[in-house]
């Protein structure tokens, strides 16, 4: 993973500038926000599709770049080519740990992984449960929440990682490898999950792993540099993300229409996929269970440290960050009032 990150730095550095000022075709008269998004059902896609951030910040030039996994997003953060991103909790735990030590802050919880991420065995593979993955080939995007959950599932079933061949595949590549029969199972997320489930069996979902003490989340993260330089933009971004969460709760059909447009799904398909995730209410974000407030940082920091401890035990990171340092990486400025 680290080789992949270093290899990508030269490319990302060419596009990187400080304080969120983009290069290339950017209007020098406008401040710029560079957002990284992923193609999974979430309020983030509602914000993008409906242009909510552009409406809230007309004086900013806003660019959206699609990424396939948290590992590539962390690479972009290291290369200083993005300001804000939708990224899983496991990649964030890695990012806050050595050797990456990325200077960014968690400012939003997009969703809690439920049945929208799962481990699926291909029909005909001979795999009937997690324990029977021994000697099999499993695809998952390395350094992602799915990778973390796969390792947790194997650990729970008493299967050593070395007893399984784990292949680094992005979600769209998983579908191709699945069709060719190159892999026996895969841990991935929607919408690719929906496709492989058509010819496979779900062995365990992230919802089940959460109840077993290994929850995963999709988070909104902002660079420390950008947050300090443009706090008003961060506030506006949090407000529109909260607006999207409200829409998912009160009018899921409308939210699904926007999400479907982004994922090339029908509104009905998008709504069905949306129903498999767990979405918080904006008011929940400022509670002790999640982000917390300026007076008391919430338990999300503990969750990230726990994830880092597991990753250290799996020899995926060099060291576990101190809880106090992770608490400093939770952006609680203005909570709860700033969410509107």
From TrEMBL:
<dbReference type="GO" id="GO:0042918">
    <property type="term" value="P:alkanesulfonate transmembrane transport"/>
</dbReference>
<protein>
    <submittedName>
        <fullName>Taurine transport system substrate-binding protein</fullName>
    </submittedName>
</protein>
<keyword id="KW-0732">Signal</keyword>
<dbReference type="GO" id="GO:0042597">
    <property type="term" value="C:periplasmic space"/>
</dbReference>
<feature type="domain" description="SsuA/THI5-like">
    <location>
        <begin position="116"/>
        <end position="255"/>
    </location>
</feature>
<comment type="similarity">
    <text>Belongs to the bacterial solute-binding protein SsuA/TauA family.</text>
</comment>
<dbReference type="InterPro" id="IPR015168">
    <property type="entry name" value="SsuA/THI5"/>
</dbReference>
<feature type="signal peptide">
    <location>
        <begin position="1"/>
        <end position="21"/>
    </location>
</feature>
<dbReference type="Pfam" id="PF09084">
    <property type="entry name" value="NMT1"/>
</dbReference>
């Amino acid at each position: 993973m680290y080789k992949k990150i270093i290899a990508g730095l030269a490319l990302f550095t060419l596009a990187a500038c400080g304080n969120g000022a983009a290069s290339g075709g950017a209007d020098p008269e406008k401040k710029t926000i560079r957002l990284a998004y992923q193609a999974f059902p979430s309020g983030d896609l509602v914000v993008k599709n409906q242009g909510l951030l552009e409406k809230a910040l007309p004086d900013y030039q806003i660019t959206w770049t699609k990424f396939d996994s948290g590992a590539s997003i962390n690479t972009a953060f290291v290369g200083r080519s993005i300001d804000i991103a939708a990224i899983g909790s496991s990649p964030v735990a890695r990012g806050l740990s050595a050797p990456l030590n990325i200077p960014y802050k968690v400012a939003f919880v997009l969703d809690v992984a439920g049945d929208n991420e799962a481990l699926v065995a291909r029909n005909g593979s001979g795999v009937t449960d997690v324990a029977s993955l021994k000697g099999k080939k499993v695809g998952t995007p390395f350094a992602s929440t799915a990778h973390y959950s796969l390792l947790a599932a194997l650990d729970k079933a008493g299967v050593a990682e070395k007893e399984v061949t784990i292949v680094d595949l992005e979600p769209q590549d998983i579908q191709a490898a699945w069709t060719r029969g190159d892999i026996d199972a895969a841990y991935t997320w929607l919408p690719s999950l929906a496709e492989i489930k058509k010819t496979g069996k779900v062995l365990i979902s992230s919802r089940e792993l959460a109840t077993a003490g290994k929850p995963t989340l999709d988070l909104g993260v902002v660079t420390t540099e950008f947050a300090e330089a443009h706090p008003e933009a961060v506030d506006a971004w949090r407000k529109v993300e909260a607006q999207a969460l409200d829409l998912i709760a009160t009018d899921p059909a409308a939210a699904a229409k926007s999400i479907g447009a982004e994922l090339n799904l029908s509104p009905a398909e998008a709504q069905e996929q949306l129903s498999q995730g767990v979405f918080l209410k904006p008011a929940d974000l400022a509670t002790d269970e999640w982000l917390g407030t300026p007076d008391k940082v919430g338990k999300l920091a503990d969750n990230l440290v726990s994830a880092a401890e597991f990753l250290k035990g799996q020899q995926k990171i060099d060291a576990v960050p101190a809880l106090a340092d992770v608490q400093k990486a939770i952006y609680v400025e203005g909570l709860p009032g700033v969410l509107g």
